[in-house]
Design a protein that fits this description.
This protein is α/β, with parallel strands linked by helices and 142 residues long. It is 32% helix and 18% strand. It contains three helices and seven strands, in the order H-E-E-E-E-H-E-H-E-E. The strands form two sheets. Strands 4-3-2-5-6 form a five-stranded mixed beta sheet. The relative contact order is 0.18.
């Protein structure tokens, strides 16, 4: 009988470079498919409405004035929204309307916000000759 000597097999090896390539491809995939939402700077409890309408995706987003429950105003929808007073708001709206005559304004007011502040924002918008003013609400039609 003739026995063949067994060849020594090498231990299994993990190829780190291939694993890194796969991880980079996964990371790129996740970064390109993830959508990021901007968070509001203030926590607001929006009033409820059954008649709310969604804005079209192709139209320009409106300029947002946020009013919290204490009545303080912020101009802008992002976390770096500019705190303003009613007097400053009027001047800021006028300067923005001069840059963009078709400017739209959206009021994002807490349901406990003083109604007087909402009226003052609407008056400032009318003084700045803004033609379209809307309000954000929470949809309860479902």
């Amino acid at each position: 009988m003739r026995f063949y000597p067994r060849k020594r097999s090498s231990p299994p090896a993990i190829i780190i470079v291939a694993l890194i390539d796969v991880l980079i491809v996964l990371l790129i995939f996740l970064m390109t498919t993830t959508t990021f939402r901007q968070q509001n700077a203030m926590k607001l409890a929006l009033p409820e409405s059954t008649q709310g309408e969604k804005a079209d995706a192709h139209e320009a987003p409106p300029l947002v004035v946020s009013i919290d429950a204490q009545g303080s105003l912020r101009l802008g929808a992002t976390a770096d929204a500019l705190p303003v007073t009613v007097g400053n708001l009027r001047g800021e709206l006028i300067s923005r309307v001069l840059k963009n005559p078709d400017l739209k304004l959206a009021i994002n007011a807490d349901k406990a916000a003083p109604f007087g502040q909402i009226v003052k924002v609407m008056d400032a918008a009318k003084d700045a000759k803004i033609k379209f003013v809307s309000a954000y609400t929470k949809d309860v039609s479902k």
